[in-house]
């Protein structure tokens, strides 16, 4: 089993319900193909560096997946035809960083200390 970090950028105008459906859809694809989602993070709406399909912002969803390579090709095949998605990226990693919360708001970090 390989370790992958997989990030999806959904359009800025998708509703929270649709984001939940997107998360469920791609989680089921991984689980159906005997993969394991170690962690699922919803990073929220963030600015894009440049316009993508006339969007200035995107909803980021990040998966940490333990799976075989065939699952990643299955995920990407489905993401290519999904009209709600702007971009996706998969990176193979040696180990997961499960402690760091990169997109936690600053005031939340201060409250937890």
Present the secondary structure layout.
Blueprint lengths: L1 E10 L4 H17 L3 E17 L2 E13 L1 H12 L4 E9 L12 H7 L1
Antiparallel strand pairs: 1-3, 1-4, 2-3
Explained architecture:
It is built from three helices and four strands. With 113 residues, the chain is α+β, with helices and mostly antiparallel strands. The chain has one domain: 2-Layer Sandwich (Alpha-Beta Plaits), CATH 3.30.70. A four-stranded antiparallel sheet has the order 2-3-1-4, covered by helices on one side. The protein is globular. The chain starts with a strand and ends with a helix.
CATH homologous superfamily (4th level) name? Ribosomal protein S6/Translation elongation factor EF1B
Total helical elements: 3
Strand content: 35-45%
Class by SSE composition: alpha+beta
Largest sheet: 4 strands, antiparallel
CATH architecture: 2-Layer Sandwich
| Strand line-up of the largest beta sheet | 2-3-1-4
DSSP, total strands: 4
Task: State the low-pLDDT regions, or none.
Answer: none
């Amino acid at each position: 089993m390989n370790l992958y970090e997989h990030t999806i950028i959904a359009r800025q105008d998708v509703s929270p319900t649709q984001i939940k459906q997107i998360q469920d859809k791609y989680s089921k694809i991984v689980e159906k193909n005997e993969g394991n989602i170690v962690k699922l993070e919803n990073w929220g709406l963030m600015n894009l560096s440049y316009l993508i399909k006339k969007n200035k912002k995107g909803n980021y969803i990040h998966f940490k997946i333990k799976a075989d390579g065939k699952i990643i090709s299955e995920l990407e095949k489905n993401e290519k035809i999904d009209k709600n998605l702007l971009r996706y990226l998969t990176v193979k990693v040696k180990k997961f960083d499960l402690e760091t919360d990169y997109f936690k708001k600053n005031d939340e970090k201060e409250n937890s200390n």
